[in-house]
Specification:
Blueprint lengths: L1 E2 H10 L6 H10 L5 H32 L26 H6 L2 H29 L4 H27 L6 E2 L10 H32 L3
Antiparallel strand pairs: 1-2
Helix pairs in contact: 1-5, 2-6, 3-6, 3-7, 5-6, 5-7
């Protein structure tokens, strides 16, 4: 177990935007944060989430199409499975409103600290199960990369509100031995990524109202 900073070192190095870790370190050293800086950071997260939500919908749809029967059948709903180490994005409106800024962002950071590795695990499974599904494989790679980028900006935002990065245990790897089990678990990972983006959308909208530009 370690801090999110330690777990995030490897993803930070692959986020594609140089200096992201340095930005986090600078934010951690700030003695005070200007409201305008916080509002701009929230706006950046909102822009990311809006883009990633569309792509997560494409990922989910393409995933179902590529798995064959019964996944593509309109009457079939894949069974839900818990994702190791991933908190549920489901939250009541009352609970959503009552969260502190720090706790709201910590929950998001925990989720996006877990999702990239799980998305890459499913990508590896799909490279064996559907090696010709190039568009699907590209969508998985993009989703993992985008989740890391979103994690970076959420971590910066968490530090800007004056909180420490959370302690997050490294989750166990996804476990599935048979092809159908891997397809079901893969669906659950896609669905969880999609649902967490919706949750982040709601959380960032709440923060944007609290800290307007």
């Amino acid at each position: 177990m370690g801090t999110l900073r330690h777990i995030m070192k490897f993803p930070f190095s692959r986020c594609g935007a140089p200096g992201l870790l340095n930005r986090v370190e600078r934010a951690a050293r700030l003695k005070s944060t200007q409201p305008q800086d916080l509002a701009k950071a929230i706006e950046q997260v909102q822009r990311q989430v809006a883009l990633h939500r569309k792509q997560s919908e494409s990922l989910l749809q393409e995933y179902l199409v590529c798995q064959g029967d019964p996944f593509g059948h309109p009457d079939f709903t894949p069974p839900l499975r818990p994702i190791p180490g991933l908190p549920s994005p489901d939250i009541s409106q009352e609970a959503l409103i009552s969260l502190s800024d720090a706790e709201r962002l910590r929950q998001n950071c925990t989720a996006y600290g877990v999702l990239p590795d799980h998305l890459r695990t499913v990508l590896h499974w799909q490279q064996v199960l559907n090696p010709q599904a190039n568009h699907l494989l590209d969508l998985f790679g993009n989703a993992a990369h985008q989740a890391e980028g979103l994690l970076s900006n959420l971590a910066i935002l968490l530090l800007l509100v004056g909180s420490q990065l959370p302690t997050v245990p490294i989750p166990p790897k996804l476990s599935a031995s048979k092809p159908f089990q891997k397809k079901v678990m893969g669906y659950n990972v896609c669905r969880s990524y999609h649902d967490w983006l919706l949750r982040t959308y709601m959380d960032s909208a709440f923060l944007a109202k609290k800290y307007p530009l």
